[in-house]
Amino acid sequence: MSGFVRVCAVSEVAEESALAVELDDQDVAIVNSGGTFYAIADRCSHAAIALSEGDVYDAQIECYLHGSTFDLRTGKPLSLPATDPVPVYPCQVVDGDVLVDVSQPLDPEQPETEQAQAKIKETAAIKETQES
Ligand code: FES
C-alpha cells in the first residue's frame, strides 16, 4: 500500500507520548511532541525494543532499555549506545486525524519538514489528477 493512511485520531495521542500502531505489517510509533506529530519505526536500532514505550520530549524519543534518544524528525540516534538511525515516515494531521505514509521512509540527511511538505504536495497533485 502506498500513500497516506489514517492511523489514529489526534486525541488518541497525548502530548509528549507515543501510540503503538501496525501499518502495512510494520510496527510504527505515532508520537506527539509539543503538539507536532511524528511517525517512527517502533523498534530501537540497538536491540529491537519498542520505542513507543519510552519517554518523549523536545522532538526526541528515548529508548527505555539503555537510554538512547532518537531525533523524531530524522530518526538519527542522538546518544549511545544506538549508532544506527531508525526509519521515520511522512506524517500529517488532517481534520483531527493522523495520517502516515510508510511506503517512503524519510531521508535521515534531510529535514523532516521539507520532505513532508514535498510529499504532501505530491499527494495533492495525484488527487487532483485522479479527480479531473
Ligand atoms: S535497546 Fe534501545 S538503546 Fe539499547
TrEMBL record:
Return the InterPro entries for the record: Rieske_2Fe-2S, Rieske_2Fe-2S_sf
- Rieske domain span: 5-100
Query: Where in the sequence does UniProt note compositional bias of the Basic and acidic residues kind?
Result: 119-132
Protein's UniProt keywords contain Iron: yes
Recorded protein name is Ferredoxin, 2Fe-2S
One Pfam family name is Rieske
Alphabetically sorted, this entry's keywords are: 2Fe-2S, Iron, Iron-sulfur, Metal-binding
Per the record, which residues fall in region Disordered?
105-132
Which molecular-function annotations from GO does this UniProt entry contain? 2 iron, 2 sulfur cluster binding; metal ion binding; monooxygenase activity; oxidoreductase activity, acting on paired donors, with incorporation or reduction of molecular oxygen
PANTHER family from the entry? Answer: 3-PHENYLPROPIONATE_CINNAMIC ACID DIOXYGENASE FERREDOXIN SUBUNIT (PTHR21496:SF23), FERREDOXIN-RELATED (PTHR21496)
Coiled-coil stretches noted in the UniProt entry, renumbered to this chain: none
